[in-house]
Write a structure and sequence with these properties.
Chain lengths: ~1500, ~475
């Protein structure tokens, strides 16, 4: 791998397509466009000060990449060319760019010649080459290994090229060179890369650390190198592979973020290519297809697409607005003109969806755009001398305070642009005003776009009587359970069904029952590199609308482009479909094509029919049909249905390959789809709309027969649609996608159990890593379903079979947890009877040909046995065991404490889960037992995560995702929040709690690195663990996480338990642990990172055999939850979410808790049994120590699948792959991470506070601070908490005065007794987890800007704060006081999503408030000074009510806080308010959560 | 499904019974039906468990949570459909089943179980009453002929299942009446014979041919059947009673339970019998054997007007609650007070009859000894039994009924003619498909498995039907 400057090819489970990156981005620009060397130097300083946002791998000197984009420094190059005797034309009439070239001289020579040739061929003039002078003495060995030669090509504009066409010519030259070189067989061609080729800008970049850039490129030391703007980027990638070209900036952009819908965007872009035509460009365009170069970087791809839009004539800001639109669908405050603009463009292109902060420049404009969600920080300072400094962090470039004119931030969905020619900043509103009025978009839409609702109405009709309905249901695989457990809640309550306790049935490919094709696909989800979003509380950004009909030519803007049929949602009623079928208008002619096949064709039926129907569709498109309806109506004795997903995805890919995909929409009219996963897969694989007619018929019949309780059919359908809408939003949002349009064809799935051949043809580019079934087996499964509906003897039992996917039933799907296994395990642990345990484990391990998971088809290779006495004892093996994260709240106190006692006695680990832990459990019991959970979980809700909680951990686990519902939040309804639970969670009894889907302080990998740093500071002795869920790419993520300094990683299987989760998530999201751990192991080894981390796995691990297999695949440690619960008495009622657990485990009901009969001994017996079984296997295979087994994949092989009709197609060699690394590479844990906390500022603080800590002696001193000082105060607080708990020190014992710009997490988890006075400003996460301390931030004394109009602190301030105070003189960014549960604060303005999920505390805002204020806010009170009368438009009314501030106690409280604010910060705003108190008071609005009010006022 | 927390809200409600003094005056069923409202709340007690242990406790895999819920929701017809999909004769099991479902009900871990058996009976009775049950003969016939020998629950279930699949079924019964032990063994007060007749009539209407008074092997040669039928299913039961071969066994007044019960059932059905009359009227009765059959003998003796009834059981009195080594969801070995015992009977546990003593060939008393049981063997759980020295007593009796279980199949001409293979327990040997050593000849029910309960016999019938159907479908028609 190391001789190739590209990412390694796919090998084992590693795929380069799973790579992620993230970064720090920034720029410095002179608004008036005055070039200087200082701009360049300052920009590099910005980069250097964000070094901590980048990362390094095992080689500390090899960075992930850094680079800079600047204007071509004409003066400098002119001089350089003169030396070389190159005659340089005037500025702008020549172009240049840095080109990476091979090391091999002969290869290099060929490529250079090719470049020269191409330039001349294009009618431009090749002038010469300049070696880019570099000093590589500082860069790392890994980087050096593939360091390219860098040369600058110099080109003069050809005589026949008009100046304004030059840029476009250069674009074609670059593209053509690339295409040609790619086709050659030159050995080192992969070195070749053109960083930029422009007559305006130049990009320098490489696989460097941020601090290496300045010295690596010698040009930067020359003062002649001047630019009016410089854009910098430091990359944090998830790998350590040498990839010089993947450094940013690209030709136009530097990107901090991730395009989640990339696959769909690229597919659609490629499909649209066939329709491209542009007068501006002419015919040449086709010669450089594909426009989007096959790349492994979303940013590079985005750059390619953007470039084309610009080259073809759209101004850069316009193109960006098209690719990253604001959230417009649900925005009530947006102007119609602007909406029309976005709507029009939505008919040309779907959003490139995902969290993004993009900085861009074309040499004239420089600016940034933030996606609709605003999940990346972007702060800027404007100086009085006319410069803009924009960066991911404030303070990255030190500027004298007096020189600052204003401090701001980029807001969600907004663009910020500097026009250096006009010499001014163009505000978002002005810019958008300009582009949205450029064309009469609203008129175009009005005249051309057709709304579904405007079509002639059709009355509902129902085709099936009860008997036929039953036959159809059977033919499409419906079960009784499907209707009762899945469909009914959707229709009755408008919600998706909830389940509990994970999944223990076979993977579709291992199941003996015929499976719907949908079941072979698992939904993917965002973790770490990209946050999931909250589709409920942040619904404002979600979009559901779809457009049907032919797309036009994206490169031009004409009214005809808007000729589309707009449908409000992708799942249509049968009436709506009929409306579409009835359209006579030529623009929307629809053709219905049957996807039924002849039963008589047997196993060839589907293949034969598909081939024919693809042709039919193609022909129809040629004839001008723009809507293709694939229909499986009419199933009969002779005709069976092709799986709808196979037909529609197959057609989608067929048409995409043909280049005609965008000329027609695909609607799937199917009896098969009825639940969310079905809809999600269909849409994800390209269906533009779906009509689930059989679901509708079923609903109708269930109503008629009185089985569904709902007012009428109409209500039922509305509920069904509501459930689908919510469910689909949940599915897409867990990937961080916010519009269905972008999700469509984005293929956010991994297949498991499908053959490569099948995937290639019908689900192109879907990862499917273990092979599997092909079209014949799919046909077989379809025929089996069909046979059930049409039995030979024609006698029907008149009922639908139970099913048994969700619950065990005798004749249903196989479950590992069965009456027998539960009973045996319980008897074994209660009687301490190992032979009964063996009966249990034999049932699990070899359940008579019933394969459930991948481990069941693995077998150990023979090895020489040893005597069992030689094997490591049970006592040491059990220390590798942990129980899963189950909160006190999800399970009862009794159950929670029993687990803790058991694990502590064993020396294993128990886990608090996301619910805090009562402090009484931190000290030992009289009998020596301990109820303290050694693992303290830090999850999205941050419940009970105080400094005291953290210092009482041996391991702190950051839960990124949970196997049963990755990417989703949780909810504890108010009635479950008892007094005790509220106490441990630091909230109010009776008030519901919401745990958000993302960690609001982890939107990307560098954020995770920061949180790890925070937590390590909070407890330097504890290991920091990161919990991930298995899916494709988890290994890559894990590599990034190790680079982020995690000590421990947990890889969870998808099938693990849960207290409550949507059934879709339990069953269809995530992958088995075998794939996760194997991939993680492989990628970590490839990156030489494995030894730095301990790997734990969980997910239906039950027996010693399971443990050994996981160890051989690479795990050091093992997590168990369900079997531990079963040992305590759980009988898998799977009703945890109903609080009815009759064995006292998953309940808070005192009567039920009394029924708990579990004992620590039961749990201990279980774990000892597992360890004993491990020992038996170790003895049999000759291992003395557990460590020796870890990572020995060579000892596994496939077994027993030959005779299984489906499993026989599986190929698990990728799981058993061992990366080709030196034999002595350690493949298990063995090295401590270097957290660098000894360099933290807190070391100084602690030593200055020595006497305060030991003797409570007051101390006050001052310290300078800058943005590289992160998590300041956290380690100091941990010292206090260790000694004094939450009680801390008395007020103001420690007072520290800081001056400067504080780095991230200033005052995180600050303990009581500490007061931080900061003069200056601060970055994100100020006061995170505040634990009683006080933070005061004011601008520096010599500042001249108005604090209340400027951004003083960053995003996500006071996240999860528990107690303490904070006073901010100035504004804060987005998501202020998210999930605050007790802190009191005053601030002078905040961004979007303020007080989201807040459960307690007081927030006073003396200024403007952004959008979506108080979403999900269930407790606490906010007081808003609504001077501008704007607030009522900004807040989210779902959970709160607004009042005047009237009661004496409220007035008193508010006044005291404002008085405090004034006295601490000298705020002039506070002064003004207080001086005119009565008038001001009337301008305050009290935001009072309904739930909280009910509890507080006893209502 | 069910009602959330229903099991906490509502108590288990047993069926009310006619008072002892009045019910012992007749042979009719005496359990009183529950109101719909009560049934609904009883259904609401079901927790719809993730693992319905009740279902796994039920030999025919009844879809218990599903129909509990349907009853709770007042959907009786749907409940009946789902009930009948797994159980051919819920009207029998709803009356006579010992209900292992209830002892494995998850509610039963900490609370009284859901009244599954009562709900089952209510569903099927309502279904008959409301006319949901109609004869539905198969649309088409396969032309395959199947003979079923024996019309007990196994034979009937096999017949019904195979008939549904379109095969032509003839059931042969050696007695004058159909139903086997259902009709001639179980007392009327537990299962009224009109209930059996109702089912038989329905099966006839669906096209099944019944031939009573036809003892195959005696009246008809099996070889003849083999020619006429494509498959034969032997469901002849396991009617060989265990005897007590002690001194005085040949005295008069000592009878096997089934001889006693059969007579009473014939009497109730106004049918004649040729054997000498056995009556408990005015007698001191001793019933040996503490099982269900023993219980039936007690109830029948009381109804016949016995002077006293004593019940002997070899084993010690079981505990009233589950023992630690016998945890949920296992079948609990606990002391069960049957309705017959309620009706008045003295029970003696851990006693063994050593001899019968009589005068003039008529039994007068039993010599019995008390037994001691040692601690359970840690491996087998068995307890060593020994006689307590000097504990002999004598118990007076005019009528002794032996209800000590069965020893397998009664050998007869049929089996001899076939030269059928038997297993060690004296049952007919069969493979996994319930086929005997003879091609096309199957067996099911007690005849294959040994003596058991009705619901298992139904399951045997259903299972053999599947195998027979498969056998027939693979049969080359000729």
């Amino acid at each position: 791998m190391s001789n190739n400057p590209l990412l390694p090819e796919s090998v084992g489970l590693y795929s380069p397509y799973t790579e992620h990156e993230s970064c720090g981005v920034g720029f410095v620009a002179d608004i008036k466009g005055r070039p200087s060397h200082q701009i360049l130097s300052d920009a590099i300083t910005v980069l250097e000060n964000m070094e901590h946002r980048g990362a390094t791998g095992s080689d500390p000197n090899t960075g992930d990449g850094a680079g800079i984009l600047l204007q071509i420094p004409d003066k400098f190059f002119r001089a350089e060319c003169e030396i070389r005797d190159i005659e340089l034309p005037a500025k702008g009439a020549y172009a240049t760019g840095v080109i990476f070239l091979p090391k091999l001289p002969e290869d290099r020579h060929i490529l250079e010649t090719m470049c020269e040739h191409e330039v001349n061929l294009a009618g431009q003039k090749f002038l010469g080459w300049r070696d880019v002078p570099r000093d590589n003495s500082e860069i790392g060995e890994t980087a050096k290994l593939v360091e390219p030669v860098m040369k600058q090509i110099i080109i003069a504009r050809g005589k026949n090229t008009r100046p304004e066409k030059f840029e476009r010519e250069l674009y074609f030259i670059r593209k053509k060179i690339w295409l040609k070189i790619n086709k050659t067989e030159i050995p080192q061609k992969n070195y070749f890369y053109i960083c930029s080729l422009s007559n305006k800008i130049i990009v320098y970049k490489g696989q460097l650390r941020a601090i290496q850039l300045r010295n690596y490129f010698l040009d930067f030391q020359n003062p002649e190198v001047e630019s009016a703007m410089a854009l910098v980027h430091s990359r944090y990638s998830t790998n350590t592979f040498p990839t010089w070209s993947l450094a940013h900036p690209y030709r136009m952009i530097a990107h901090n973020g991730e395009v989640n819908t990339l696959r769909g965007n690229v597919n659609k872009f490629n499909a649209r290519e066939h329709q491209f035509s542009s007068k501006k460009i002419g015919d040449k365009l086709k010669s450089v297809y594909p426009i989007v170069a096959p790349s492994r970087s979303d940013s590079a791809t985005f750059d390619n697409a953007l470039e084309l839009l610009v080259i073809s004539g759209r101004p850069l800001p316009h193109a960006l607005m098209m690719m990253i639109p604001e959230a417009w669908e649900g925005d009530k405050n947006m102007s119609e003109t602007k909406k029309a603009f976005y709507r029009y463009h939505s008919s040309l292109m779907e959003p490139w969806d995902g969290p993004s902060a993009i900085s861009f420049s074309d040499g004239r404009y420089i600016g940034s755009i933030l996606d609709r969600n605003g999940l990346r920080p972007a702060r800027y300072w404007k100086t009085k001398d006319g410069r803009i400094i924009m960066a991911s962090e404030a303070g990255a470039l030190p500027v004298e305070n007096k020189d600052i004119e204003s401090k701001g931030r980029l807001q969600p969905g907004k663009i910020f642009i500097i026009d250096t020619e006009e010499g001014r900043i163009i505000e978002d509103s002005e810019l958008k005003e300009k582009y949205t009025n450029q064309k009469p978009y609203a008129e175009w839409i009005k005249e051309n776009m057709v709304e579904l609702s405007s079509l002639a109405k059709v009355e509902p009709t129902f085709e099936f009587d009860d008997q036929t309905l039953l036959v159809q249901q059977k033919a499409f695989g419906y079960s009784y359970e499907d209707i009762k457990a899945i469909l009914t809640p959707m229709v009755e309550q408008g919600i998706e069904a909830t389940g509990a306790m994970g999944i223990d049935i076979p993977l579709a490919v291992l199941s003996d029952k015929p499976q719907l094709l949908f079941n072979y696909f698992k939904q993917l989800f965002a973790q770490v590199t990209n946050p999931p979003i909250d589709p409920i509380r942040e619904e404002v950004i979600m979009g559901e609308q779809m457009l049907l009909g032919a797309e036009g030519n994206m490169l031009v803007e004409t009214p005809e482009q808007a000729i589309r049929l707009s449908i409000p949602r992708p799942v249509l009623t049968s009436c709506e479909l009929q409306q579409i079928k009835n359209i006579s208008n030529d623009n929307f002619k629809s053709k219905t094509i049957s996807i039924l096949f002849d039963k008589s064709d047997k196993f060839y039926g589907i293949k034969k029919r598909l081939t024919a129907l693809f042709r039919e569709a193609s022909a129809a498109i040629k004839e001008g049909y723009s809507i293709i309806i694939l229909s499986d109506r009419g199933v009969s004795e002779e005709k069976a249905a092709i799986p709808s997903l196979l037909a529609s995805s197959g057609l989608h890919h067929y048409l995409t390959r043909k280049g005609t995909r965008t000329l027609a929409s695909i609607i799937v009219e199917t009896g098969e789809a009825f639940e969310l996963h079905h809809f999600a897969t269909l849409i994800g694989y390209g269906a533009n709309a779906i009509n689930p007619y059989l679901a509708h018929e079923t609903i109708h019949s269930e109503i008629e027969n009185g089985n569904i309780e709902v007012k009428d059919y109409e209500t039922a359908i509305l509920n069904y649609q509501k459930a689908i809408r919510k469910g689909l939003f949940k599915i897409i949002s867990k990937m961080g996608i916010s519009t269905i349009q972008s999700y469509c064809s984005a293929q956010i799935f991994e297949a498991i159990g499908l053959s490569d051949e099948l995937v290639q043809e019908y689900f192109t580019a879907t990862p499917s890593r273990i092979g599997g079934i092909g079209i014949k087996i799919i046909t077989n499964e379809a025929l089996q379903r069909h046979a059930l509906a049409f039995p030979k003897n024609k006698t029907s039992d008149g009922i639908l079979a139970t099913g048994g996917n969700y619950k065990w039933t005798s004749k249903g799907e196989f479950h590992q947890w069965s009456p027998d296994t539960v009973n045996l395990l319980q008897q074994a642990v209660r009687e301490n009877n190992y032979s009964k345990f063996k009966e249990f484990s034999n049932l699990i391990n070899k359940s008579k040909g019933n394969f459930t998971s991948i481990r069941d088809i693995l077998e150990f290779r023979k090895r020489k046995p040893i005597d069992i006495d030689e094997v490591e004892p049970v006592e040491s093996i059990v220390t590798r065991f942990a129980t899963g994260a189950m909160s006190y709240g999800s399970i009862s106190k009794e159950a929670h404490e029993t687990l803790a006692i058991a694990m502590n006695r064993l020396g294993g680990f128990s886990n608090t889960g996301e619910g805090g832990e009562d402090k009484s459990r931190f000290s030992k019991e009289e009998n020596g037992d301990s109820k303290r959970s050694r693992i303290k979980q830090v999850a999205q809700g941050r419940f009970g995560v105080s400094i005291e909680y953290l210092v009482n951990a041996d391991q702190i686990q950051i839960k990124i995702a949970q196997g049963a519902k990755p990417g989703e939040g949780g909810q504890l309804p108010g009635h479950k929040v008892s007094k005790e639970i509220a106490k441990t969670r630091g909230t109010t009894p009776g008030v519901g709690l919401i745990s958000p889907p993302p960690h609001h302080d982890i939107y990307s990998i560098e954020d995770l690195k920061q949180l790890i740093h925070d937590l390590k500071n909070a407890n330097p002795e504890a290991d920091i663990s990161v919990k991930l869920v298995s899916e494709i790419g988890v290994g890559t993520i894990a590599a990034g996480v190790v680079k982020g300094k995690a000590d421990h990683i947990l890889i969870s299987g998808y099938d693990g338990g849960t207290g409550a989760s949507p059934q879709t998530s339990i069953k269809h999201t995530g992958l088995p642990l075998e794939l996760g751990i194997a991939e993680t192991q492989q990628v970590l080894i490839m990156n030489n990172l494995r030894e730095r981390v301990r790997l734990q796995v969980d997910g239906q691990i039950k027996t010693g055999r399971h443990v050994v297999i996981a160890a051989l695949l690479g795990a050091d440690e093992f997590g168990f939850a369900t079997p531990a619960l079963v040992s305590m008495g759980c009988v898998l009622q799977r009703n945890c979410h109903l609080n009815t657990c009759s064995v006292g485990i998953a309940t808070q009901d005192p009567e039920l808790r009394n029924m708990f009969k579990g004992k620590p001994e039961h749990v201990i017996n279980y774990f000892n049994f597992v360890a004993e079984e491990v020992r038996e296997i170790m003895a049999k295979f000759g291992f003395k120590t557990f460590d020796d087994m870890i990572g020995r994949v060579d000892l596994l092989e496939t077994a027993g699948i030959k005779h299984h009709w489906k499993a026989k197609g599986l190929d698990i060699t990728s799981i058993l792959h061992r990366p080709d690394v030196p034999r002595n590479t350690l493949v298990r844990h063995g090295l401590k991470q270097d957290h660098g906390i000894e360099l933290a500022l807190d070391n100084e603080l602690i030593s200055a506070c020595r006497n305060a800590l030991s003797k409570s002696e007051p101390v006050r001193f001052s310290v300078d601070i800058n943005n590289t000082n992160r998590s300041v105060g956290t380690m100091l607080s941990s010292r206090i908490a260790k000694k004094y708990g939450m009680i801390g020190l008395s007020e103001n014992t420690i007072q520290i005065d800081f001056i400067g710009t504080a780095g991230q997490s200033f005052g995180a988890f600050l303990a009581k007794g500490i007061t931080f006075n900061l003069e200056g400003d601060a970055n994100d996460y100020v006061g995170k987890g505040l634990s009683g301390g006080r933070i005061i931030i004011v601008p520096q004394e010599d500042s001249t800007f108005k604090p209340e109009e400027n951004i003083i602190i960053g995003n996500v301030v006071l996240y999860g704060a528990i107690a303490g105070e904070m006073y901010i003189r100035g504004q804060a960014g987005e998501r202020f006081a998210v999930r605050n549960s007790g802190a009191k604060t005053v601030v002078e303005g905040i961004g979007d999503h303020g007080c989201e999920y807040m459960t307690g505390g007081r927030v006073v805002v003396l200024g403007d408030v952004g959008k979506n204020f108080a979403a999900g806010m269930s407790g606490g009170i906010a007081y808003i000074w609504d001077k501008s009368k704007n607030f009522r438009k900004q807040y989210n009314p779902e959970m709160v009510e607004l009042f005047d501030v009237e009661s004496d106690s409220d007035i008193e409280e508010l006044k005291t806080l404002i008085e405090n604010h004034k006295s601490f910060t000298s705020s002039t705003v506070a002064e003004k308010i207080l001086s005119n108190w009565d008038d001001s008071l009337s301008q305050f609005i009290k935001v009072y959560p309904t739930d909280y009010r009910r509890v507080m006022e006893g209502k | 499904m069910g009602e959330v927390k229903g099991y906490l809200k509502y108590d288990r409600l047993e069926l009310k019974k006619e008072a002892v003094e009045s019910r012992i005056k007749h042979y009719r069923e005496f359990l009183l039906p529950q109101s719909e409202e009560d049934l609904k709340t009883q259904g609401a007690r079901c927790m719809d468990c993730g693992i319905p242990f009740c279902q796994s406790g039920c030999p025919v895999d009844n879809l218990i949570p599903e129909w509990n819920d349907l009853v709770y929701k007042n959907k009786w017809e749907d409940a009946a459909k789902r009930l009948l999909s797994t159980n051919n004769f819920p009207e029998f099991t709803g009356r006579v089943c010992p209900a292992p479902c209830e002892t494995s009900c998850v509610v039963n871990i900490n609370k009284p179980a859901v009244t599954i058996k009562n709900i089952e009976k209510a569903i099927i009775e309502k279904a008959f009453k409301n006319g949901y049950i109609k004869a539905t003969p198969p649309e088409t016939r396969t032309g395959k002929q199947v003979a079923i020998i024996g019309s007990g629950p196994a034979g009937l279930a096999a017949a019904e299942q195979l008939n549904k699949l379109g095969h032509s079924i003839t059931v042969f019964e050696k007695n004058e009446v159909l139903g086997g032990l259902l009709t001639l063994g179980i007392p009327d007060y537990k299962l009224d014979k009109s209930i059996v007749q109702r089912r038989v009539d329905l099966m006839k209407a669906e096209g099944i041919t019944f031939k009573t008074n036809t003892n195959i092997g005696k009246d008809v040669k099996i070889s003849q059947l083999k020619e006429e039928f494509n498959a034969i299913v032997l469901c002849g039961g396991a009617e060989d009673p265990r005897d007590l071969n002690v001194e005085g066994r040949d005295l008069d007044g000592i009878h096997f339970a089934m001889d006693f019960l059969r007579q009473q059932n014939r009497r109730n059905g106004n049918r004649t019998f040729v054997e000498a009359e056995i009556s408990a009227k005015g007698k001191n009765v001793v019933v040996i054997g503490g099982g269900d059959t023993g219980s039936d003998c007690i109830g029948t003796s009381i109804r016949q007007g016995a002077k006293s009834v004593v019940n002997f059981e070899l084993m010690p009195q079981p505990p009233t609650e589950r023992a630690a080594h016998n945890p949920w969801p296992e079948w609990p070995s606990i002391d069960r007070i049957s309705t017959s015992i309620e009706e008045g009977c003295k029970r003696e546990f851990a006693v063994m009859t050593k001899a019968f003593v009589g005068k003039a060939g008529q039994v007068e008393k039993l010599k019995v000894v008390r037994l001691d049981f040692g601690a359970p063997d840690p491996k087998t759980g068995r307890r060593a039994m020994s006689e307590i020295p000097n504990s002999e007593i004598e118990v007076g009796a005019d009528l002794v009924i032996l209800a000590m279980g069965y020893l397998g199949v009664v050998r007869n001409n049929l089996l001899d003619e076939l030269q059928i293979a038997m297993d060690k327990k004296n049952n007919v040997n069969a493979d996994n498909n319930y086929m005997t050593n003879l091609d096309g000849i199957f067996t099911a029910g007690d005849m294959r498995s040994g003596q058991s309960i009705v619901v298992r016999a139904i399951n045997e019938g259903r299972t053999v039907a599947e195998s027979v159907d498969k056998y027939l479908s693979e049969l080359k028609t000729g």
